[in-house]
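INFO  loader      accepted 1 record
INFO  loader      residues=351
INFO  predictor   begin
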Amino acid sequence: MKGKKTIVIRYIIMLLIFAVLTAGLVIFFSSREPVVYSAPLKPVEITKPERRFIESAIDTTGYIEASAMIPVVPFVQGTVEEYLIEPGMDVVEDEIIAVIDKRPYELQLAQAEAQFTAVESALKRTAPLYESGAATQQDYEMVKAQHDAAKAQLELAQLQLSYADVVSPVSGTVLMAPSAKGSIASSEQPLAVVADLGDLIVNISVGEKYFSRIKSSPESLKITISSPDGAVSEAEVISVSPFIDPTSKTFKVKVGLIDPSAFTPGMFVRIHIVYDSVECSTLPVTARTAEGAVYMLASGDVAESIVFEKMASDSSYFQIPEGYENTDFVIRGQNSILSGEKVAVVSGEAL
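INFO  predictor   done
INFO  writer      dumping tokens
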């Protein structure tokens, strides 16, 4: 009996201790101020608009051409006895580039000279006789006609012999030299193709939507030609096609290189044509969200979204309306915030 009372007393003491501890905990936690969790502000980088020129441009490709590629075609036929050129060689106007076998034309000239000498002697004999009345007018006119025909034949023979020396009709560079010593020259196959590499052009195909703009003021275009190996030259418009190809919906613009020294016919090039330029307030294109909006700090640290009308732009910047020159715009971090949300402005290195 005494043992049972001892156990009960122990339980009562334990309950009292538990109650005291519970009461103490309740008092402790009820006296503490509640902790409110605040999410950290999202970091953003800002900038003010900058004044710069926005260029409207066309980017396309093409190939370098010589303004004039002159095929050198022989005027007489025969075996090529001397072939004095090779591709890449510079020649001047009237320089001999090949010699065709002259023997047939020398014989032809000798025959023409002999015939002319004979007829000229006949004319010298007949003319005094005709003047004295010893020869008829018909006799004189017949000998005179023979003389004129022989003279023309002689001049033709001289000309054909001179053509055996094939000369370059222009100064330039030999682009093609398709013949060789011992081959047969004829008017059907040029002995060379010569071009002036100081006069290079590009024929550009441009979309029809630019026709009116380019046709109206081609002199205002700013054109840059660049090659894959880094060569660059400005260019100027030579001509603009007066019509649009209905099949390709393009028109041709021929431009001439101002500094062609680093270019050669056949070279692939990129063409950048600036047809308009405007000075304006701009933001970098990276400031736009995927939906096309931008965020500005309208009041303190609150970011608000705004959508501007599409204006001039290039690959790096876009134009914004006037009146926002002193406004801070978010250029990094804008894709993770909402309009009306407070933000923390940090430097670019901290993002």
